[in-house]
Design goal:
Among the domains are: 362-409 and 451-456 and 500-670; 677-730, Type 1 dockerin domain (Orthogonal Bundle). A hairpin with a 4-residue loop joins strand 6 (63-66) and strand 7. The protein has a 4-stranded antiparallel β-sheet with strand order 1-80-77-76, with no helix packed on it. 3% of the residues lie in helices and 46% in strands. By secondary structure, the protein is mainly beta.
Length: 734
């Protein structure tokens, strides 16, 4: 029974592994397909490279693989941007501007064999933007002057499997695209000479020397492909071979030609799909057709692809009969798609699911957790800036809003949302709306600016933010709703109000204001129902968060000192008010506080900070009235919202990991097991847990030993074969 002592009735608090992303958390620059075992039985993979740390539920450093249903890391990835991908002798080649791949030194280029990263010789000193294979050699183009072995290679070099070699004297500017055309290598980019020839932005390498392609183009080429036996070039140019060719042109072996009237901004990627040429980049029209960032050329005219994409597309490829687009966009065809999307010939789809952007507010309403923020999707649902969590999945609330939600509250049994939106569920609401459980309603005529904070005071709903009018009456950043109309709280404030709470029977407001009700009040003030008053001399900078803890009013924000002078000493972004004076909280924090709440008799602070009370505490920390402590390993980016739901602490913000686990934009601090079979509370059900279960074995109809309650997976007061069967179903492995 020695191991049975490791069975914890309840786990120590930790951050629960959370939701992934419908894509990646950064930018996608490049993509390709790769079959790890060639002609074997393993399915092919979509590989994407860029500048990101999370793909779906995987922590993937700048490179990731999509198998058609989920994302995977490739080892520990690389330590810089991946800008080009290809395959070479069955291995995946990644290149960009990194110096390390999988813990191994690899200058700008590395190869992945399915298990390990390895360098290609001493690599290349500089950035690599393009890769291809030509005459059994790997060709790299970019912005560099030499390889790691001191071989001079001006912006283009070849690797024969053993060493790097130059392609003549190279080019006088960056190489951003490579392709093969009629047996020759084509390079394009920002150069005007290649070898000994004037070669305006595009040139041909015949194996011995560089040659121009006609008179070339008049500006940078960013993409190349071959379609219907013609070379296609896309980029920032407006003419090719002296012919007007807006950002895209074709070379038939003798001359350059336009493709219709071209597109209205740069083309950054080209591919073929369903027999048509696909172009993507920064443009919004192709020919005379609205084609947001992506379009198809059928040989005669340009056509749109669905409703297009919301921002730059940097890469295109085809995977499992679908067109894949990657870039810096958040939306494709009206759907949330985090920097990468799939077109199946009729509709756009994300690659994965989850929350796609920051959470700025939480509240509990009718037993459910409500989240508001900048997100459009949550889980598998399109929710539009506000969503309901029932304990297992996310749901839409009446179609959501048309812009960010910044604040949530409950008033007279209804959910109240405030933010930057003007409509909710299709109803005009102007910054604030009421959800009755079925539909959204306006509160009067709303506000003329965003609402950032909500509270209930003296049986009325109070809204605050950056607005001047409510119900078309002047209120100056604060207003109170009595159920029928809005009215002012005195003459309001001179600047934004960001936080509200109630303390000692008074309404407390914090923000970036310096006067309230005509009275000087530096960044914090109290309303007694009749007039505004200051809280002594206030702070030296803005207040973003307010809470009540252990009989004190707690304020957090951007301030360093409590009071406009430093005579009170530094409080460092957080302070307590006991009704008569301010005090610091044990050295405070190292950066701004964005939100405060109370959980398990502790004050919880979230924000930008990296330490609390001298201890490492990444973006979140707990105060027990005497000292600060971290909450696990914290988050990888800032926390902007906190709440308590079903006994768990809920955090929201701009992070994608919490406690070292992927948990995109919201996370749960809990004592519950991730699975009942995780008997040692290490977030998986593996052989260690099996050994604990074996030590707790009592047999049928024999009560289990003391301390083995958690091992009774069948819940029948015994630890027997039924529990081993249950464990087998829950086994995850390490």
């Amino acid at each position: 029974m020695a191991a049975a002592t490791a069975v914890r009735a309840q786990c120590e608090p930790y951050w629960l592994p959370g939701d992934g992303l419908p894509g990646v958390d950064g930018i996608v620059y490049t993509s390709t397909t790769w079959d790890p075992d060639g002609d074997g039985t393993a399915p092919g993979l979509l590989i994407v490279g860029g500048l990101f740390t999370v793909a779906g539920r995987a922590q993937a450093k700048n490179i990731a693989a999509w198998d058609g249903s989920r994302w995977h890391a490739l080892g520990t990835g690389v330590n810089g941007a991946v800008r080009a991908l290809t395959t070479y002798y069955g291995e995946l080649i990644a290149a960009g501007d990194f110096t390390n791949a999988g813990g191994v030194e690899a200058r700008s280029i590395a190869r992945w064999d399915g298990t390990h990263w390895r360098p290609l010789g001493l690599g290349i000193i500089g950035q690599i933007h393009a890769l291809t294979v030509y005459n059994s050699s790997l060709i790299a183009g970019g912005v560099f002057m030499e390889t790691g072995g001191d071989l001079l290679a001006s912006n283009i070099a070849g690797w024969d499997g053993a060493q790097w070699w130059p392609l003549g004297s190279g080019t006088n500017g960056g190489v951003y695209a490579l392709s093969l055309y009629r047996g020759s290598l084509i390079a394009a980019g920002g150069f005007t000479t290649a070898g000994d020839f004037v070669s305006n932005f595009v040139a041909r390498w015949n194996g011995q020397q560089w040659q121009p392609r006609g008179s070339g183009l008049n500006s940078t080429v960013l993409a190349l492909t071959v379609h219907n036996d013609t070379l296609i070039a896309g980029g920032a140019f407006s003419s090719a071979g002296g012919v007007m060719s807006r950002h895209i042109a074709r070379w038939d072996g003798n001359r350059w030609q336009a493709l219709g009237s071209g597109v209205d901004n740069s083309v950054r990627s080209l591919t073929k799909y369903n027999g048509e040429l696909i172009a993507a980049g920064d443009f919004t029209t192709a020919g005379n057709v609205e084609s947001a960032r992506i379009a198809r050329w059928d040989g005669i005219e340009w056509r749109s692809i669905g409703d297009g994409i919301s921002a730059r597309v940097s890469t295109l490829t085809v995977f499992q009969d679908a067109l894949i687009a990657g870039g810096s966009f958040r939306n494709a065809g009206g759907l949330s798609t985090k920097r990468i999307a799939r077109w199946n010939g009729s509709h756009w789809h994300p690659l994965g699911n989850g929350m796609d952007a920051a959470v700025n507010a939480f509240v509990v309403h009718n037993g459910d957790l409500i989240a508001g923020g900048a997100f459009v999707s949550a889980g598998d649902a399109t929710v539009n800036f506000v969503a309901r969590w029932d304990g297992s999945e996310w749901h839409s609330l009446g179609g959501g809003m048309n812009h960010w939600v910044s604040a949530l509250a409950v008033y007279n049994g209804d959910l109240i949302a405030g933010g930057r939106f003007s409509t909710a569920g299709g109803v005009t609401v102007n910054g604030i709306a009421r959800w009755d459980g079925t539909q959204w309603h306006a509160l009067g005529f709303g506000m003329d600016g965003p609402v950032y904070a909500l509270a209930v005071y003296d049986r009325e709903l109070v809204a605050a933010g950056q607005f001047h009018t409510a119900d078309e009456s002047t209120v100056n950043n604060t207003a109170s709703w009595n159920g029928i109309r809005w009215h002012s709280l005195g003459v309001g404030t001179n600047e934004t109000v960001s936080a509200l709470t109630v303390y000692n029977g008074e309404l407390i407001a914090g923000g970036s204001f310096t006067t309230v009700g005509g009275v000087s009040a530096d960044y914090i003030a109290r309303w007694d129902g009749v007039q505004w008053r200051s809280l002594k001399s206030g702070m030296d900078a803005s207040v973003s968060a307010l809470a009540v803890y252990d009989g004190e009013l707690i304020a957090g924000g951007d301030f360093i000192s409590l009071g406009v002078t430093s005579s009170k000493g530094n409080s460092n972004y957080i302070g307590g008010w006991n009704g008569s004076q301010w005090r610091a909280l044990d050295g405070g924090l190292t950066d701004a506080v964005q939100f405060l709440t109370v959980h398990d008799e502790e004050l919880i602070a979230g924000g930008y900070f990296r330490s609390a009370g001298g201890l490492v505490a990444d973006r979140i920390a707990a105060w027990d009235g005497t000292q600060w402590r971290p909450l696990g390993a914290g988050m990888n980016d800032w926390v902007s919202a906190l709440a308590v739901y079903n006994g768990e602490l809920i955090a929201g913000g701009y992070f994608t990991t919490a406690g070292g686990f992927v948990s995109a934009y919201w996370a749960r601090w809990t004592t519950r097991r991730v699975t009942p079979a995780d008997l040692d509370c290490d977030v998986d059900a593996d052989l260690d847990d099996f050994n604990i279960l074996a030590d707790c074995f009592s047999g049928p109809n024999v009560p289990h030993p003391a301390g083995c309650e958690a091992a009774d997976l069948a819940g029948d007061a015994y630890v027997d074969l039924r529990d081993f069967a249950a464990f087998q179903n829950l086994f995850t492995g390490p």
